[in-house]
Specification:
single chain, mainly beta, Neuraminidase, 5-stranded antiparallel β-sheet, 40 strands, 37% strand
Length: 606
């Protein structure tokens, strides 16, 4: 199929998908990945990057092609939307498809006068083989999407046409000289869009590799002091940072340090985050515009910040961790909230809200940003997000490698996370609990069917010092049982967990257990069972379970890979009517016919 015919076919197919998808989306939770609006592509698609022009229209730049990631024909295209992603123009080549010279992983920037730039990796020398011991190319073919030249093109007509290709010369550094080609070929890619600093410069980060493939990554930065204003490409200035021969990395964080992205802070400071394979994202700071950087460290939550004790670290596998500045001292961060060490498990995607305090970023407990019914490695993961800020609505774009979509974010969910950091009041609810052990009749009420879009919150106050592992804290027959169970880390003073077990009329179960907690009085424990995402979580004394246990000041040990789980998707609803029984240690139990936002549960249990 020729390129013009293929594009007409893709455009017609996309139109049908959008029409059908709009109707289907009305029946879904807004965070369900299937509720998003598709962006056109040629089959494979990656890194949708969207900028907003002065007239409110969007220009998206993405990597696409007829094959899979890294295969022949991969190139960069653009498309425009005038209705916030509901419809898109036909694809336009930013870099035409060339079977020997792929173009990959573009990031975009829009100037104050609506020029759109696309910066990307371009394999201009058609390098498809590594040199052997004799210096000649080996016989095997390699991926060709992370080696080549730093290039860019620009558009002055909203992506309808693009300029000629321009190359940014990149100085050779230690990682280049030590690579498979001895520095004659450079390996790199970017995921983070350019940002404007407080002094008007434009900075964006990228990963440079020392060895093929994806080995010994380190962070580098392009800084331009005139990209926002200079219209003549011959006069643009690009400075490669940091100074010296080595990029940003931690000597103890291993080979995989990659997918760097940067945001501006107050007083000219910069923050840069990136992924590792140690189960956490890393962060570093620069006070001189990127010329030098602090030693990277684990990103951490705000817990104990007022006491000078670092909270637990955020958890993330080898998946894109994306940070955005959204104005003032506010930030958002996309990650996957578990301690995996590989490319798997990118469903659901989580988002946390941050604020700058004394030049550093602190983070709220997260909420689910997107989820999907498919958790397979090939089709059930989504990543490489981009944030689009509007006056009244915010959106996020993502890709599953075969389909890219745009989703509207729930602003109330985001504001709830910033309320955590401000220690705001518990949001008022117009929906009273279905059951409250203080005053309600002593039987299990009728609960909604979890095969829909509802959910449950099981909220209890208890004194574990008076509990018994042989007698449940609370129960409604066998239909809802909350029990204090052994199984923590007794040697560390955390011998107990609390387990909540639900059983529906067909015998399906939904079970979740907290992380290890100390046997102390005054605990507030909340279990959340969310039907749409099919996810269960627990909040204990204002802290969301994350699979980590505190073993010393600022020191945490993994007790499990993730602090959330999934329950049986066929779970319906328990049979109503079972008698309520309170066990030793229970002070109060409330049942809600909804899954509270995590932020509400955090504020209620502090």
């Amino acid at each position: 199929m020729t390129d013009p015919i293929r594009r007409v076919f893709c455009w017609f197919s996309l139109s049908l998908l959008v029409t059908a998808g709009l109707a289907f989306a009305q029946e879904l939770d807004s965070r369900d990945v299937r509720a998003g609006l598709p962006i056109p592509d040629e089959g494979y698609c990656d890194q949708p990057r969207i900028v907003t022009l002065s007239d409110g229209s969007w220009v998206a730049v993405l990597t696409t092609g007829p094959g899979h990631e890294g295969s022949k024909g991969q190139h960069v295209v653009s498309t425009r939307s005038e209705d916030r992603g509901r419809t898109w123009s036909e694809l336009v080549d930013v870099e035409p498809s060339d079977p020997e010279r792929p173009a990959s992983y573009a990031v975009s920037y829009v100037t104050p006068y609506d020029r759109v730039y696309a910066f990307y990796t371009y394999n201009g020398d058609a390098v498809w083989a590594r040199p052997g011991p004799d210096g000649k190319p080996r016989d095997e073919r390699i991926r060709a999407d992370t080696q080549g030249w730093w290039c860019y093109r620009y558009s002055d007509d909203a992506g309808a046409t693009w300029s000629e290709r321009h190359r940014i010369p990149m100085r050779v550094t230690a990682s280049d000289r030590g690579n498979d080609w001895g520095g004659e070929v450079q390996m790199f890619w970017a995921i983070g869009d350019p940002v404007t600093t407080t002094d008007g410069a434009v900075v964006f980060a990228f990963t440079k590799l020392a060895r093929y493939f994806l080995v010994d990554g380190e962070g580098w930065f392009w800084r331009s002091d005139n990209l926002a204003t200079e219209r003549d490409p011959a006069k643009l200035r690009f400075e490669l940072l940091p100074d010296g021969d080595h990029g940003l990395r931690h000597p103890d964080f291993g080979s995989v340090q990659e997918e760097f992205n940067v945001v501006p802070l107050a007083k000219g400071r910069l923050a840069c985050v990136y992924r590792t394979t140690l189960g956490f994202p890393a962060i570093a700071y620069s006070d001189d515009g990127g010329h030098s950087w602090s030693t990277p460290e684990r990103m951490r939550y705000r817990r104990f910040v007022d006491l000078g004790i670092a909270g637990p670290h955020l958890r993330n596998p080898r998946a894109c961790p994306k940070i955005w500045h959204v104005g003032g001292d506010r930030y958002l961060f996309w990650f996957h909230h578990h301690g995996g060490t590989d490319f798997k498990d990118r469903n659901p995607a989580w988002i946390t809200a941050g604020v700058e305090r004394d030049g550093e970023l602190i983070w709220s407990w997260p909420e689910i940003a997107l989820f999907g019914p498919d958790r397979s490695y090939e089709t059930g993961r989504f990543s490489y997000p981009d944030l689009i800020l509007g006056d009244d609505e915010w959106f996020v774009a993502e890709t599953q490698k075969t389909v890219a979509r745009v989703h509207r974010l729930d602003r109330a969910l985001l504001e709830g996370m910033w309320r955590q950091l401000d220690r705001g009041e518990v949001p008022a609810s117009n929906v009273p609990p279905l059951f409250d052990s203080e005053g309600d009749a002593g039987e299990l009420p009728a609960l909604p069917d979890l095969r829909g879009l509802g959910g449950y919150t099981v909220e209890l106050r208890c004194d574990l010092s008076r509990s018994s592992r042989d007698v449940p804290l609370a129960r409604f027959g066998e239909d809802l049982v909350v029990t204090a169970v052994l199984g923590g880390t007794k040697s560390l003073g955390h011998p107990w967990r609390v387990e909540c077990k639900l059983r529906d009329v067909a015998g399906h179960t939904a079970i979740w257990t907290t992380d290890p907690i100390s046997r102390l009085s005054g605990h507030r424990v909340t279990f959340l069972f969310e039907a749409a995402a099919n996810v269960c979580t627990a909040v204990v004394d204002g802290e969301l379970d994350d699979g980590l246990t505190m073993v010393g000041p600022s020191d945490y040990r993994a007790s499990r890979q993730r602090g959330f789980g999934w329950f049986d998707p066929e779970f319906g609803a328990p049979a109503p009517g079972a008698a309520f029984e309170a066990g030793p240690g229970l002070e109060r139990l409330r049942l809600h016919a909804r899954a509270m936002p995590i932020s509400e549960a955090v504020l209620r249990t502090r």
